[in-house]
Design goal:
Glycosyltransferase, single chain, about 400 residues, three-stranded antiparallel beta sheet, about 45% helix, 15 helices
């Protein structure tokens, strides 16, 4: 979420080696304060106000919990988790995955609008709880993380013939007739999978990580990845990835996260170089247009439109990891110039802030400001851990 750090808003060098010596307090991350002001209610509900139903999603709750960790804000984290637990889990947590969509129903009631679960949100919820339990010494969070991880393993992992274990986008609706499955590459941040492999020794996570690298390489012939891809157990005599029949090969608002996750992978991960190599088309397209394309087609490599500042923020780790220093600086300037306008009050004639742009912005600029780094084992290291010690 392109709510930027104090260093950015003050016009300082975009990527400083340190932020503030006082970064032990959540209030010192201005981006996080702004996100709370515009998108988070006092109850801990994250709201996308640009939707007619004023929806909340499991993804939004999970992302905000991770940002609360980055900000060292345990009070906000607990509110976010409590709202999620009370409203998205229909039955006790040890036997249920969270509903992905909550908001204003047609009958005027506030409730779950779609009870299916979204596995990317489930991963981020489990990860945020796991890391919060570790760094804040909260066994209750660790226990909740392990319960949720067990449900993910039981209900959202499939064994695809010819490939092996893979995470489905949700428990319902992604296994198709004739041994076809629908997958979403952006649902699989490899650092999270590495962390789960450390705590669930008999789980599928190392295999899923390897298969994620295989998938991204297979479906990105022009260096672009699609939002959704298909997997066919038998295409002729072999199994393989295919263009999804209903979604096509378009890559846009989902796929932008694949570049973000790849850019944040530690250099020591054996899949990092392969992931970056598979996604090389995006840096070329961004350099040519001066901004990331809003849409890129995985098969042809054609692109169109310009993504918002959140797209630029999402590419910051990817551009840095790819050694594209000039592009990194240029996209940082684009984020700064566009983000301020996006947060002007609606009564001044500005549209409501773009929730998703600010989500991507907090991920990208938080990383660029060194506020967090993923380690080879999947643990996350926070800037405030050094400063607060």
């Amino acid at each position: 979420m392109a709510c930027l750090s104090l260093a950015l808003l003050a016009g300082m060098t975009f990527l400083s080696d340190s932020v503030s010596a006082a970064a032990c307090q959540a209030s010192d991350w201005r981006a996080w304060r702004q996100f709370n002001q515009h998108f988070v209610q006092a109850t801990g509900r994250v709201v996308d106000a640009r939707t007619p139903q004023l929806v909340s999603t499991s993804e939004g709750q999970a992302y905000a919990m991770f940002f609360a960790l980055v900000a060292n804000d345990p009070v906000a984290f607990d509110k976010l988790w409590r709202w999620t637990l009370q409203n998205l889990f229909a039955v006790p947590q040890d036997s249920q995955l969270p509903a992905w969509l909550w908001g204003l129903a047609a009958d005027g009631q506030w409730r779950v609008l779609d009870a299916n679960s979204a596995s990317d949100a489930d991963l981020w919820l489990a990860y945020a709880l796991l890391e919060a339990g570790r760094v804040w010494n909260r066994p209750d969070y660790t226990g909740a993380a392990m319960k949720l991880l067990r449900q993910i393993e039981l209900r959202e992992v499939a064994n695809l013939p010819g490939l092996g274990k893979m995470l489905l986008p949700g428990p319902v609706g992604f296994s198709k007739p004739d041994q076809q499955w629908t997958l979403n590459p952006s649902y699989l941040p490899i650092p999270l999978l590495r962390r789960f492999a450390q705590v669930s020794l008999s789980g599928p996570w190392t295999e899923i990580a390897l298969n994620t690298g295989t998938m991204v390489a297979a479906v990105s012939p022009q260096g672009f990845v699609a939002d959704w891809v298909g997997y066919q157990a038998k295409v002729g005599t072999t199994a393989g990835f295919i263009v999804d029949a209903s979604k096509g090969d378009v890559g846009s608002y989902d796929a932008i996260r694949v570049y973000l996750w790849a850019g944040m992978m530690p250099k020591g991960d054996p899949l990092t170089a392969q992931m970056l190599r598979s996604l090389g088309g995006m840096q070329s397209a961004t350099g040519e247009a001066g901004a990331p394309p809003e849409t890129a087609y995985a098969v042809s490599g054609a692109t169109s439109g310009k993504g918002g500042f959140g797209f630029s923020a999402a590419l910051l780790p990817y551009l840095r990891a790819s050694g594209q220093t000039k592009l990194f600086d240029a996209q940082g300037r684009r984020v700064r110039s566009m983000q301020t306008q996006s947060l002007l009050p609606a009564h001044m004639g500005s549209p409501l802030p773009a929730y998703y742009d600010h989500v991507l912005g907090l991920f990208g600029t938080g990383w660029a400001d060194n506020r967090y780094r993923f380690q080879v084992d999947g643990q996350v290291k926070f800037l405030w851990e050094n400063q607060c010690s």
